[in-house]
Amino acid sequence: MSTCPKCGAAKPDGATFCGLCAEPFKAEQPTQAGPETPGPEKVPWSSLDYVSWPSRQKVRIRKYVKIFVPVAVLVIAVAAVVLVLSTRTRKVEGLSQFKSGYSGISFSYPASWEKKDQAFLKHLSKTQDVNSSQGNEVILVKPGEVFFQHLLTLSTENVAAGRDWPSILEGLKSGYDSTSSTSVGSTFTEMALPPETGAKGVVETYYMDQKPPLFEIESYIVRGNISYTFLFATPLRGSATDDRDARNQFFNILNTLQFQ
């Protein structure tokens, strides 16, 4: 508590004059506070405040990702397993090479096919009446469970002197017209052999109405004074194959044809 500046008597708080000597007191000046310490700076609200918090849309997307990603991974895994199994079960068949020792022709054929002789042809035809020139180059067979699946023979002979390709082609067509009525649906198509081979050829396809019915393809090629006759026969019952497979097999072989 402070005192009166005149008489020294005690000065009660809030008194305006002295109670002993009646000396008026000067009004007290309010104590000035020190400088205010600044608080943390207020940052205005911004949409960026929500960056660290996923929106509802993001939550939904994450939900779908959690569902579909495992499903996609499972589908890919199953497809990979199927692909591996199919690759293991599918055998890539090698090729063997045939090369004539005297006519200068060669081609590739599936390695699983077997070489036969004319006795095999006689057994098939159930008669001894087999032309000695038929299959004189090579006889190849793709085995089947009941019948053979495919039979390929290559025969060669000399071309009569003075015969050109148009007359040979005309003779082939007229020869077909005079053959047995067991062959039906014959079509002729000229082959597009590379000009550098010097060879001309024609392909004939037809069906043999017999037991079992056969689909046959004949390719007649002339080069110089030699003619080459490919005969490709496919049973249409009991051989687990058809004429489409026969065409593919035959033309795959012809595509490897080479002359020397």
Written account of the structure:
The structure is a single chain. With 260 residues, the protein is of the alpha+beta class. The protein is built from four helices and twelve strands; from the N terminus they run E-E-H-E-E-E-H-E-E-H-E-E-E-E-H-E. The strands form three sheets. The protein has a seven-stranded antiparallel beta sheet, with helices on both faces. The protein has a three-stranded antiparallel beta sheet with strand order 3-4-12. A two-stranded antiparallel sheet has the order 1-2.
The average pLDDT score comes to 78
Name the CATH architecture of the largest domain. Answer: 3-Layer(aba) Sandwich
What is the number of independent domains?
2
Share in β-strands: 25-35%
CATH topology of the largest domain: Protein Transport Mog1p, Chain A
Alpha-carbon Rg, integer:
52 Å
Properties at a glance:
three-stranded antiparallel β-sheet, 2 domains, Protein Transport Mog1p, Chain A, alpha+beta, 260 residues, single chain
Short description:
This protein is an alpha+beta fold and 260 residues long. It has helices spanning 56-89, 118-125, 165-177, 243-254, and strands spanning 2-3, 10-11, 95-99, 105-110, 114-116, 138-142, 150-158, 183-190, 199-208, 214-223, 226-235, 258-259.
Task: Please outline the helices and strands.
Blueprint: E1 2-3, E2 10-11, H1 56-89, E3 95-99, E4 105-110, E5 114-116, H2 118-125, E6 138-142, E7 150-158, H3 165-177, E8 183-190, E9 199-208, E10 214-223, E11 226-235, H4 243-254, E12 258-259
Antiparallel strand pairs: 1-2, 3-4, 4-12, 5-6, 6-7, 7-11, 8-9, 9-10, 10-11
